[in-house]
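> agent: user asked for a holo structure of the chain below bound to fe (ii) ion. Plan: (1) validate sequence alphabet, (2) canonicalize SMILES, (3) run complex prediction with ligand conditioning, (4) return tokens. Step 1... ok. Step 2... ok. Step 3 dispatched.
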Amino acid sequence: MGGGLYNQIILETLIPESLPGVSLFMKHGTNYTLYKGPDLPFTERDKQRLVNGQIEYLFVFSSDLSDYNLYVESNLSELLENEDFSLGKRQEILCQASVSYVQEIFDAPAMNIKSNLDRCKSLIKHILSDHFSPHQLMSTLGSLVSHNSYTYVHSVQVSSYMTALYKLRNTEDEILMDVGIGGIFHDYGKVYVPQMILDKPDKLTSSEFEEIKGHPKLGHDALDQLGILNPIALDIVRHHHEKFNGTGYPDGLTEISRYAKIASIADVYSALTTNRSYRQALTKEVALDIMSDQMKGSFDTYYLSMFSAMLE
Ligand SMILES: [Fe+2]
């Protein structure tokens, strides 16, 4: 589930003299040119020149993404509290860090996830902070889709919607964290589905659809075997495609946990309101209408109306 050879990074995340040894690239049209090799320092003067040249983004090679992500995450509190940056810029930094992190866990061997869970928790804590409204975070995340694989952005979006919705009625911090982690990992099973099927712009054949439908159970079983997620997060991974009327998959449940109910609402809403190769993003109003009319019976109406009210 690769995210491309070059990954866009935000210039403001680069703190002069502290950058690890990664190569930085600039984009000219469709070409990438080397701006700085891994052994050269990145100085205050370099940064100022780029800012003066109205450069907002640079690029790092995929093989350097992991080092860059760790670098941003270790400076994230400082970056997010830096009042020299606009709130919009800080939001963008947080969203980009979260999406890059998800890209890393989806692309890395499964056994590495275990050591990365603390990073996941720390990002969710920032997402939950009162600095940012879910509304603003979502529009920032939506704008990242063109530069990142949809699944990574979608995972962060689902996690953010779920925690925002859960937080309205419940304040147990520990459970909130599990809900957030469940949201990040809900589509993990898609790493086992061929990319060609996931990206197919045309209607899926029934066997392709069956293959996609395998992802909740595959994700659940893989993560369960690793023994890193607790039952709430695992429940979200396995049951986010269950429907309130019992016609969902993989288990056709009629009794669904509140976590999975919230997950299915966040999942469908995020999908409908995001640009995809086969259709434009729907507006909030149209998406909510479809969910309550055409998809009647899919969702718990109590949580769906709470979700609609949250988006007012
Ligand atoms: Fe899914």
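> agent: step 4 complete. Summary for user: The mean pLDDT is 89. Residues 87-107 form the longest helix (21 residues).
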